[in-house]
C-alpha cells in the first residue's frame, strides 16, 4: 500500500518540502535491505511498521538505515523524531523505543517536547554552573569586541568562582548568597562589594539573555563604594618613595613607577616587554589590560624609561614580564609587600621626625592612593594642568558620553609633556634637603624590627577582618602556651 503525507519540520531531521513515499510493512532486517537510499534532499523512502503505529525506517543518502517515530499530539500537526541508526539500535530495540514513545503520546505526554526539556536540563546542569557560565561570558565579551582585562578576569576567579563556582546561577538561594557574603567578609569588608558585583554581573547577563528567570536568591543589595578622599602629602609620598628604594627589588620599582605615572597597580606590575617600544619610548597599553577597555598610547618620561631599562639591560632578553623576581612571573604586589613597605616607611618617618624635631605620623593609606599623588599635585599651582590632561594621564574618559563619541583624541602628547614635568619635580624633591633622613643607604631591616615597626606604624588604623582574625588566632596560641606552661 502506498500513500502520501506532507513533510513537517521536526527534531533531528532536515526539512523536506516534497511529498514522501510511504510503504507499510512489518519492519525487519529483510524489509530494510531493499530500501533504496534517499537523496540528500528531496523525497525520502520510508517503510512504516504495521505493528507499532508511527515507527518507521529509511536509508540516508549514504545508505545508513535510520529509525524514526512520527505522531500527532493533541490535534496538532504531525511531528517526527529520529530514534537512531541501525547499529545504535537493533530493529527490536528501536521498535520498543518507538512503542514507549507511543505510550507517552497516548497518556498525554509529548515525547519531543519532553526530550527537548531533558536536553535543556542536561545542558543547564553544566552550562549554568557559575564557573562554566563565566567562561562563556568571557568568550562572548571577547568576540563582541568588549574583552575583559586580565585583572578583571582574575577578580572574578578570586572573588566569585573560588566561592560559588560549583553552584548553578538559576538555583542560587538566599542562604547561598548569605554564606558567600560571610566568606567574603572574612577576607575584608571591601571584598563583599567586589564579590557581589561579580555575581550580580553574571545574574543580570543571564536574565537579559533569557538563560533563566530571576529568583529570590538573585535579589540582594551591593554595598555602595566608599569614596576615598585620602591624599598623601608631599612629606608622606617622599617617605613612600624612599621606602620603595629601600625595598631594593623590582617591587619597589613598581611602587616608584606608580607614583611617577599615576597608573593602576596591575597595569604596572603585570607590564610585559611586548607592550613597550623602547626605541620610541612608548607604551601601548591594550584594552584588555586597562579599566577603560580601550587601547592607549603612553609616552614614557625619561626617569620611568631608565627604571624599566635597568630591569633587563640586555635588549635581546626583553621578553615576558618587565618587573619580575624569577624571570618568568610578574611580581606579586599583595599584602606581604605592603607590610614590608609600611615598616620601611616607618623607619624613614622616624628618622625624619628626629631630624626635624617633629612627630608626624601616617594615617591609613593603600597602594591605590598613589594615583592621587600626581593627579592632585598637577591640578594645583605651580602646575595647574587642565582636568582633561590629568584624566588622559589616569586613562579616564574625558567629558560625557557624547564627548566620548565625537572627541576621540587621547591627548597623548599633552599628557606625556605633563608627566615629564611631574617626573622632573619628583627628582627635585628626592634631591632636596628634606629627602633621605638617615642617609640614602640604610642597613637591611631584621624581621623582628619589621614586626615592631609595622605595629607602631599602623597603630589606630582600621583593621581588615583577616587582620582581626590573625590577631585573635595569635592570642589563642599564646593562651594555649600559657596553659601548657
Automatic annotation (TrEMBL):
Region (Disordered) residue spans: 454-485
Keywords (A to Z) from UniProt: DNA integration, DNA recombination, DNA-binding
Domain of life: Bacteria
A Pfam short name: Arm-DNA-bind_3
Domain Tyr recombinase: 227-420
Feature: compositional bias, Basic and acidic residues: 463-477
SUPFAM superfamilies (alphabetical): DNA breaking-rejoining enzymes (SSF56349)
Family that this chain belongs to: Belongs to the 'phage' integrase family.
Name this protein carries in UniProt: Integrase family protein
Organism annotation: Sphingomonas molluscorum
Lineage: Bacteria, Pseudomonadati, Pseudomonadota, Alphaproteobacteria, Sphingomonadales
Amino acid at each position: 500500500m502506498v500513500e502520501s503525507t506532507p513533510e513537517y519540520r521536526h527534531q533531528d531531521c532536515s526539512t523536506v518540502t516534497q511529498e514522501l513515499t510511504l510503504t507499510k510493512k512489518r519492519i525487519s532486517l529483510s524489509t530494510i535491505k531493499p530500501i533504496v537510499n534517499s537523496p540528500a534532499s528531496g523525497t525520502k523512502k520510508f517503510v512504516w511498521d504495521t505493528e507499532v503505529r508511527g515507527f518507521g525506517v529509511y536509508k540516508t543518502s549514504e545508505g545508513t538505515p535510520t529509525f524514526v517515530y512520527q505522531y500527532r499530539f493533541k490535534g496538532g500537526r504531525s511531528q517526527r523524531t529520529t530514534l537512531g541508526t541501525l547499529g545504535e539500535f537493533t530493529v527490536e530495540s528501536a521498535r520498543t523505543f518507538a512503542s514507549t514513545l507511543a505510550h507517552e503520546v497516548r497518556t498525554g505526554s509529548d515525547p519531543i517536547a519532553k526530550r527537548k526539556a531533558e536536553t535543556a536540563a542536561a545542558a543547564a546542569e553544566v552550562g549554568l554552573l557559575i564557573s562554566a557560565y563565566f567562561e562563556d561570558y568571557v568568550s562572548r565579551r571577547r568576540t563582541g569586541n568588549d574583552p575583559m582585562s586580565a585583572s578583571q578576569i582574575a577578580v572574578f576567579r578570586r572573588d566569585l568562582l573560588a566561592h560559588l563556582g560549583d553552584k548553578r546561577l538559576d538555583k542560587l538561594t538566599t542562604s547561598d548568597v548569605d554564606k558567600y557574603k560571610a566568606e567574603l567578609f572574612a577576607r575584608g569588608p571591601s571584598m563583599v562589594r567586589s564579590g557581589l558585583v561579580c555575581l550580580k554581573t553574571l545574574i543580570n547577563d543571564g536574565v537579559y539573555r533569557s538563560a533563566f528567570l530571576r529568583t529570590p536568591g538573585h535579589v540582594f543589595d551591593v554595598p555602595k563604594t566608599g569614596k576615598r578622599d585620602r591624599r598623601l602629602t608631599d612629606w608622606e609620598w617622599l617617605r613612600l618613595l624612599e621606602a620603595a628604594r629601600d625595598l631594593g627589588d623590582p617591587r619597589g620599582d613598581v611602587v616608584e613607577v606608580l607614583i611617577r605615572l599615576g597608573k593602576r597597580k596591575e597595569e604596572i606590575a603585570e607590564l610585559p616587554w611586548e607592550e613597550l617600544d623602547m626605541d620610541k619610548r612608548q607604551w601601548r597599553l591594550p584594552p584588555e589590560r586597562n579599566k577603560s577597555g580601550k587601547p592607549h598610547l603612553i609616552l614614557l618620561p625619561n626617569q620611568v624609561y631608565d627604571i624599566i631599562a635597568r630591569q633587563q639591560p640586555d635588549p635581546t632578553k626583553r621578553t615576558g614580564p618587565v618587573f619580575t623576581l624569577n624571570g618568568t612571573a610578574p611580581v606579586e604586589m599583595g599584602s606581604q609587600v605592603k607590610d614590608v613597605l609600611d615598616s620601611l616607611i616607618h623607619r624613614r618617618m622616624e628618622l625624619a621626625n628626629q631630624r626635624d624635631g617633629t612627630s608626624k605620623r601616617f594615617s591609613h593609606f593603600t597602594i591605590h592612593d598613589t594615583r592621587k599623588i600626581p593627579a592632585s599635585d598637577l591640578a594645583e599651582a605651580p602646575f595647574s594642568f587642565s582636568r582633561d590632561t590629568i584624566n588622559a594621564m589616569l586613562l579616564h574618559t574625558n567629558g560625557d558620553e557624547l564627548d566620548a563619541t565625537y572627541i576621540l583624541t587621547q591627548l597623548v602628547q599633552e599628557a606625556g609633556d605633563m608627566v615629564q614635568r611631574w617626573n622632573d619635580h619628583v627628582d627635585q624633591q628626592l634631591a632636596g634637603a628634606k629627602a633621605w633622613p638617615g642617609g640614602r643607604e640604610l642597613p637591611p631591616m631584621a624581621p623582628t624590627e619589621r614586626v615592631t615597626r609595622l605595629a607602631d606604624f599602623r597603630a589606630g588604623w582600621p583593621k581588615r577582618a583577616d587582620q582581626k582574625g590573625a590577631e585573635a588566632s595569635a592570642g589563642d596560641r599564646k593562651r594555649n602556651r600559657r596553659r601548657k606552661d
